[in-house]
Amino acid sequence: MDLTLILFERLGLLLVLAFVLTRIPGFRSLLYREYSMKMAIIHACMFGIFGIAGTMTGVVMEGNVVVNHDLVWGVEEGQMAVSSSLVAIVIAGLLGGPVVGFGAGLIAGAHLFGIGGIGFLANSLVNPITGLLAGLTARFFSHERVISPFKALFIGIFPPVLHMQFLLIFDTQPPGMIATINTIGIPIVLSNSIAIAIFTAMIGIVLREQESEAALATRQALTIAEEALPFLKKDDVRDMAKGIAGLLYDRLKLAAVSVTNDQQVLAHIGLGDDHHHEGDQIATFVAQQAIYTKKMQIAHSHSEIQCGNKNCPLEAAIIIPIIGENDVIQLIKFYFKKSQHIRPVEVTLAKGLGQLISNQQRTIAAEKLKLHIRDAELRNLQAQINPHFLFNTLHLIAALFRRDADKARHITVQLAQYMRFNLSLVSVSLVPLEKECAHVKAYMEIIQARFSNRLQVHFSYSEALSDVLIPPSTIQPLVENCVQHGLGQVAEGGQVEVIIQKQGSYVEIIVRDNGCGFSETMLDRAGRMPLSTSNEGGTGLYNVNQRLVRLLGEEASLHIRNLPTHGSEVVFTIPFG
């Protein structure tokens, strides 16, 4: 019982060292099984030293009596070192595999061989063999991130048993060794297996901490990326840069934040703003490296930042490249007062933010390109003017000047207003309903002057709807379609009716005539496809429908039907307010 308590006491010190070990950044590569020969050698040395620490915090036996020492530096003749090095070696094998386990065992075994004492050969051989066997055993649990404490407890029973078998095999005085083994057997098995289980539980806690930090960094990155979206959509790059820098500085509580393009600083907020100015040229090696490699870079010292001010309070930085379609379009720099302030969570957050903002920039660029293409198409549709209408109206004005000069002047004014509206279509996507109605009325007056004997146009519109926005030149082509096609064969009594009224949260526009209507084959296709060869107005209806759908959505599309008596009706809706 006394020996068991002493071993647990000494293992307590060892577990404190183990806790410190789990906080070493390079230890994470073991947890995530990022193997390389270089890291295998480093980890073998690290666990080998850990095994040496287990030996030095062990106890010394003389016969069946425990000889207490603060640290085991050596063993005199007739004494035996009871080591806890197997704890470190088993963990090395379980985490790092056979190479790390065997390497750590060689280092710990060499130290035990040098200490000497009874059983030194067994002590030195059991460590590398245990490391190799533990590494091979770990392959059965390769699907697990870290082996569970219960399994580790079970595995931890066997190395001490193997150790005692080696002591019996290599000892020259079996009766004395049997008595010693009877004394140390159970305490060593209990202390080693429990220590291994505690160590694996400790590693599990470290992993959960890291995953919690990563999850927190991911959530924070997603939140910031969402909040950054309005700034990223700004057309002015300096306004965008100032907005992004201010957002990151406020949310992340950094020493300073800079946003640059590939040549100069666009914005700098935080410490050092007295000498880190907007417009400064990018000259630092790490920034150029980030642009060239398209990968995040970290500056750990004032010399790497290459600030010309000797009193600059900024010592370290994370440089995050924002990648556009192919090249780096911006750099975001997180500045820190000390390099120690750059923790793994900051690195994870920076990497996540860089990826998210890069994706957003590419998406915004694609949306802008799509919008420009769409606007070009709309401008093309909107700028179309029927040359026959223009020539016929000019002939009408010329004829009117001979018999009714006042009416000729009035029609000239209406034509000028009509043409002025058409020429302005290339600059806007939406206009107030009031302007659209003025455009329609100008067209209607011209048409009624031309066809006064056989056509009447009725217009119903409320002034309360004046400010509602509508795609320009949408109602007039529908009226023109009625005149040219619906009433094209009507000699007298032709009627065109335009009704604009509020229906709930929408404004409903109805254009109907009492003409011939659509044929059955045309009715389903009208407005849905360009029917340029049709004499039933297929192209004009299609252009209007395209404009409405692209600017206002599918719910604004045209609905066309033949009326029960004579003629047809075209209806569409636009949002009110």
Structure description:
- With 577 residues, the protein is an alpha+beta fold.
- The protein has helices at residues 2-22, 28-31, 37-56, 85-115, 120-138, 149-155, 158-170, 174-232, 237-252, 285-293, 302-305, 344-382, 387-403, 405-423, 433-450, 475-486, 520-523, 538-552; strands at residues 59-62, 65-67, 80-82, 256-260, 265-270, 297-299, 316-323, 328-336, 431-432, 455-460, 469-470, 494-503, 506-513, 559-562, 568-575.
- It has three domains: 2-211, Arp2/3 complex 21 kDa subunit ARPC3 (Orthogonal Bundle); 235-362, GAF domain (Beta-Lactamase, 2-Layer Sandwich), CATH 3.30.450.40; 383-575, Heat Shock Protein 90.
- 57% of the residues lie in helices and 14% in strands.
- The chain has a five-stranded antiparallel sheet, with helices on both faces. The protein has a five-stranded mixed sheet with strand order 10-12-13-15-14. It has a three-stranded antiparallel sheet with strand order 2-1-3.
- It is elongated, with a radius of gyration of 42 Å.
- It starts with a helix and ends with a strand.
